[in-house]
Write a structure and sequence with these properties.
This protein has a single domain, classed as Undecaprenyl pyrophosphate synthetase, CATH 3.40.1180. It has seven helices and six strands, in the order βααβαβαβααββα. It has helices spanning 26-32, 37-58, 77-101, 116-128, 144-157, 165-170, 217-228; strands spanning 18-22, 62-69, 103-108, 134-142, 182-185, 204-207. α4 links the parallel β3 and β4. Bound molecules: 3-methylbut-3-enyl trihydrogen diphosphate (2 copies) and magnesium ion.
Length: 239
């Protein structure tokens, strides 16, 4: 007896323009293998490249990844140091993907915390990719509350006293792109951990127990199919 394989969405359309990932679970992935947490971050960075390529091939126009939060500095120094050492490779990997995958890079967060050399690398990565199409936002030293506080400073400095929602959105690190349609969190926790609080107002959420280094194409297809089964009403009624 043959069962017909369920069709999966082959290519996304304008309903799924922007997908954001909370790339969680690297540490546990390493622990399961009796390896240091750093090993999880190395493999997480590898999977980041695979996921970006796959989503790009599917037609997603904007991808945002949460790589390091303003709260992650609380971790033990050896882990933070290991992540910071990987950061340079992360940026190089992203730059290497620019031409092949037509990627326009943006870094979300306060970059002033990083050493001048790293800041230079980040600026250069954004500059060399500015004419590309697929927007890839990498949230680094990013926290949504810090982002909103920063936006308040920007708005206050404009001298105006009345602001629209568009004004606020325009002062956020994501001013160059539309809000996420779908936010995916790996690693089993069901929370936002200070990610895109403003931008997530009408996002769809998908939480999976899969640890970030294990998120594969099959599961991404499943997540996309699930997204297309949702009814987004934005406070209105079904059409
Ligand atoms: C996410 O994985 C990566 C960062 C936060 C830098 P974790 O390092 O949080 O991994 P778990 O959640 O401890 O498994
Ligand atoms: C969220 O993961 C941040 C990133 C994936 C970069 P965390 O591991 O920091 O989140 P919490 O601490 O479990 O909320
Ligand atoms: Mg975590």
């Amino acid at each position: 007896m043959f069962f017909k394989k369920k069709e999966t969405v082959k290519a996304v359309d304008e309903r799924l323009k922007h997908v954001a990932f909370i790339m969680d679970g690297n540490g546990r992935w390493a622990k399961k293998r009796s390896m240091p947490r750093e090993f999880g971050h190395i493999n997480g960075a590898k999977n980041f490249k695979k996921v970006i390529r796959y989503c790009g091939d599917k037609g997603v126009k904007i991808i945002t990844v949460y790589a390091f939060s303003t709260e992650n500095w609380k971790r033990p120094k050896n882990e933070v140091d290991a992540i910071m050492n990987l950061l340079s490779d992360y940026i190089d990997d992203a730059v290497a993907m620019v031409d092949e995958n037509n990627i326009q890079l943006h870094f979300l967060g306060d970059m002033s915390i990083f050493p001048p050399k790293t800041q230079e690398k980040i600026k250069n990565a954004e500059a060399v990719s500015a004419d590309k199409e697929l927007v890839l936002n990498i949230a680094l030293n990013y926290g949504s509350r810090a982002e909103i506080a920063h936006a308040c400073e920007v708005l206050a400095a404009s001298g105006k006293t009345k602001f629209t929602e568009e004004d606020v959105a325009g002062a956020l690190y994501t001013s160059h792109c539309d809000d996420p349609d779908l936010i995916v969190r790996t690693g089993g926790d069901i929370r936002l951990s200070n990610f895109l609080l403003w931008q997530a107002a009408y996002a769809e959420f998908y939480f999976t127990d899969t640890l970030w280094p294990d998120l594969d194409e099959r599961e991404i297809d499943k997540i996309i199919d699930d997204f297309y089964s949702r009814k987004r009403r934005y406070g209105g009624l079904d059409k």
